[in-house]
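Thread: sanity check for a docking pose with 2-acetamido-2-deoxy-beta-D-glucopyranose

Original post by kr_44:
Hi all, I'm comparing my docking run against an independent structure prediction. Below are the sequence and the ligand SMILES. Could someone generate the full complex and paste the structure tokens? I mainly care about where the ligand ends up relative to the chain.
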Amino acid sequence: MSSSKSWLSAAWLLSVGQFLTSPHFAKADNPIVQTLYTSDPAPFVYDDRVYLFTGHDEDGPNDNYNMLDWQLFSSADMANWQYHGSPLSLDAFPWASINAWAGQVIERNDKFYWYVPVSNDDWAFSIGVAVADNITGPYVDAIGEALVAGSEIDPTVFIDDDGQAYLYWGNPGLFYVKLNEDMISYSGEVVEVELTEEGFGSRDDPETPTMYQEGPWLYKRGDLYYMIFAAKCCPENIQYSTGPSATGPWTYGGVIMDSAGTSGTNHVGIVEYKDTPYFFYHNGALPGGGSYTRSVCLESFEYNPDGTFPTLKMTEEGPAQIGALDPYVRQEAETIAWSEGLKTVTGEAGVIFVGKINDGDFIKVKGVAFKEGATKFSASVASEVNGGSIELHLGAVDGKVIGTCAVEVTGGWEKWKTVSCPVEVAADTTDDLFFKFIGDSADDLFNVDWWQFE
Ligand SMILES: *[C@@H]1O[C@H](CO)[C@@H](O)[C@H](O)[C@H]1NC(C)=O
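Reply from moderator J.T.:
Ran it for you. Here is the predicted complex with 2-acetamido-2-deoxy-beta-D-glucopyranose included:
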């Protein structure tokens, strides 16, 4: 087997500029995060929400992977995603130095375990494990050293019905260990899976003879175990295999999703939520996007009756929203279906808010149900200088105006004040809500922490 180095240099050859695109996507919901570049989705269903752990490409242009931390988002409707900040970064692992790459989180015994590949300065990778008492973190290094030293990348974790946990990983090999009940140690040797044509298809490349490349994602549905993976580098597509146990033997299933050509890699994460299977992946579809500025996207799908996968396409629309958003409870401003211009910010006190707001920037919140109608809007805002106003529109960013709230200077970027204004929304209105930010200054106008209608 070749080392992962040869694949890495192949990835380096992919020029970012080659794939640069900058279409206007004001109506789309994919990619699902627009405030930063996200990669390597690892969704986990917990407490009636989908938590989405991701990698993070620093804002570009980048001519290689530039990844310092991981990020967390969650949703209860698969359309509006709340940002939870960065619960884990390279700083947590003093024994590693660069490359915060693709990981996965799982819960056991009321603790959350996050398996991640990280490297030293020479790009020699190991797998670390971080732990937290709360799914939103903070996560700390669980053992103070690598869990699997000198490994390849891309850990996926799975707990079988009998309680045995498995950690798989690898590029271009596929390996696993059996984790102990404590989830931070393992028993037995590292097992290398034999990559056969029957198990993983074949491609015309003596160095990587099967379709398998990297990014395994292991789970069980009914009696069938699924090993989904990024295939056929590069650009990669998503393919899969199935088997009768968590250790195979594996039978090759074919291609699930083709590459769009906007990113050299892809990486899959799959969950079932409210009886619907969801398929997370990444591409380079955001403006400025490419192989090193990727973005996580989402599709819903149905399995074929025999358990095989349908062919999936990357879409701009993503899945249908589940239910609607309730405007009468306090909603975090960083709950977003689509935004343009602004950023999400983690403040000094750990408060997460929307900032870097300039004139004309906007946030779309999808499917808001104004059951009894609304007469008043309130928001928590802060501004050291400038201020401005929040225009509330329904249906489109330039749709019907239902109210305008003035935001005055509060004396600090995190000196919060609640402002209110009258609005007019008829009963039984369910529509997309747009916050359009207006101000005279060319600089940052104000920050928004939360909002609520009455
Ligand atoms: C987890 O943290 C969040 C804040 O990020 C908090 O709202 C929630 O109550 C915490 N959950 C538990 C079980 O402590």
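The domain at 331-453 is CATH 2.60.120.260 (Jelly Rolls). Hope that helps with the comparison, let us know if your pose agrees.
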